[in-house]
Amino acid sequence: MRWEEKDGVRWLEAALPGARVVFSTRSAGSIKENRLPLASALGIDPELIVNGRQVHGADLAFHQAASVATPEVDGHVLRTTGPIGLVYTADCLPVAVSGHDGVAVLHCGWRGLAAGIVGRGVDAVEGTHAAIGPGIGPCCYEVGDDVLDAFDDLGGGIAVDRMLDLPGVARRLLEQAGVEEIESADLCTRCEEELFFSHRRDGGPGRQAGLAWLEARGG
Could you say which of 30, 52, 127, 216 is the most buried, measured as most Cβ atoms within 10 Å of its Cβ? Predict the structure, then answer.
């Protein structure tokens, strides 16, 4: 991943095959309140952005074109150029997957990960490459037994005592689903107060975003 900046807006960008993937920072303001500063910096039409009402589940929306509908979904699958998938995050992970049949962007909290959203996203696009954006890190994510039990089948190494490695969980699930190449931001939203909103730290409404879309052939 690489840092990019324009007009005072800073973001992380991952170059997945055939797709463009962006993880915003708080420099663009809360994306849930106003997408325009980020869209302007990225040079994209905000009218092409599709999003949903996130419910910490594993359902996906499949988009052939932009739409103002906001279904109850936590992931978006893009199989044509045009629509831009967006998920909101503020400690949960934004995860993008590209493959032979498009690109998906997923909102991955522990409930969605346990419910299988990663596997569904990978299957939807025949995923081969993935990028894990900023989210709460194992340094800050203390959880209860119910959360730890949800990932028992992943084996050891994903938690120390009650501190869960959420990016590690996502990586392991991507690997199990057959993704060949995975890159991760390895940035904790709770620790990096100057860069990111964090629900656990702030308890406020601020949200950054993960966005993904297919690029036209030739870039």
Answer: 127
pTM of the predicted model over 0.90: yes
Place of tokens 């030739």: 218
What domains appear along the chain, each with residue ranges and CATH number? 2-214 (3.60.140.10)
pLDDT digits (tens, 9 = 90+) for 58-83: 999 999 988 888 999 999 999 999 99
105 within 8 A of 88, measured Cβ to Cβ: no
Task: Tell me the β-bridge partners of 14.
Answer: 21
pLDDT tens figures, 153-204: 999 999 999 999 999 999 999 999 999 999 999 999 999 999 999 999 999 9
Label each residue of 17-57 as H, E or C. Answer: CCEEEEEECHHHCCCCCCCHHHHHHHCCCHHHEECCCCCCC
Token pair in block for residue 43 = 């040079």
Backbone phi and psi for residue 216, each to the nearest 5 degrees, phi listed first: -65, 150
Task: Tell me how far apart the alpha carbons of residues 45 and 55 are, in angstroms, rounded to a whole number.
Answer: 26
